């Protein structure tokens, strides 16, 4: 009886270990995998009309349209993770990269009007792996994004939003 049981186990082991032909996975082209697109969906009963495109290598963090023509887009570049700011002056038909040269990961953006705006970024320079979100830097423009001035708030932490109130003061939760 022992021999019969051992023989059956050996036979089942041999048949379970035989090589089978594997069917290759049907993988899409690498180009399709690496292409990143942001998708917008309209609320039920509405449609989104495409009026322009914004071509860059990254993800969108924020859009702010200030009137029918002027708007800003904050993006993070996939290569290096730095902030990019784009501006439209024709309702989104075309966008101009403002070349802000801010080498940090973007967090938030707010504009009081077409000239005055703020963006916040996370500066991880010198981070040793602990408390890396503890240094947020704000950049301010007073000329519609032509130039940006760095403003540091040492107590500001993380990626909380910023906003204006009464069009005179901005707030960043601490």
From TrEMBL:
Q: What is the lineage of its organism?
A: Bacteria, Pseudomonadati, Bacteroidota, Saprospiria, Saprospirales
Q: Which domain of life is it from?
A: Bacteria
What name goes with this protein?
A: Photosynthesis system II assembly factor Ycf48/Hcf136-like domain-containing protein
What InterPro entries does this protein's entry cite?
Sialidase_sf
Q: Which organism encodes this protein?
A: Flavilitoribacter nigricans (strain ATCC 23147 / DSM 23189 / NBRC 102662 / NCIMB 1420 / SS-2)
């Amino acid at each position: 009886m022992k021999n019969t049981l051992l023989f059956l186990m050996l036979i089942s082991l041999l048949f379970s270990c035989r090589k089978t032909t594997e069917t290759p996975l049907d993988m899409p082209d690498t180009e399709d995998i690496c292409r990143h697109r942001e998708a917008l969906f309209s609320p039920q009963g509405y449609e989104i009309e495409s009026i322009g495109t914004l071509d860059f290598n990254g993800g969108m963090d924020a859009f702010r349209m200030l009137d029918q023509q002027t708007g800003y887009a904050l993006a993070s570049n996939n290569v290096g993770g730095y902030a990019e700011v784009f501006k439209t002056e024709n309702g989104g038909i075309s966008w101009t990269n403002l070349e802000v040269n801010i080498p940090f990961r973007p967090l938030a953006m707010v504009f009081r009007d077409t000239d005055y705006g703020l963006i916040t970024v996370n500066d991880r320079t010198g981070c040793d792996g602990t408390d890396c979100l503890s240094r947020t830097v704000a950049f301010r423009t007073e000329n519609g994004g032509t130039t940006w001035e760095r403003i540091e708030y040492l107590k500001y932490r993380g990626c909380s939003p910023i906003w204006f109130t009464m069009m005179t003061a901005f707030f960043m939760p601490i």
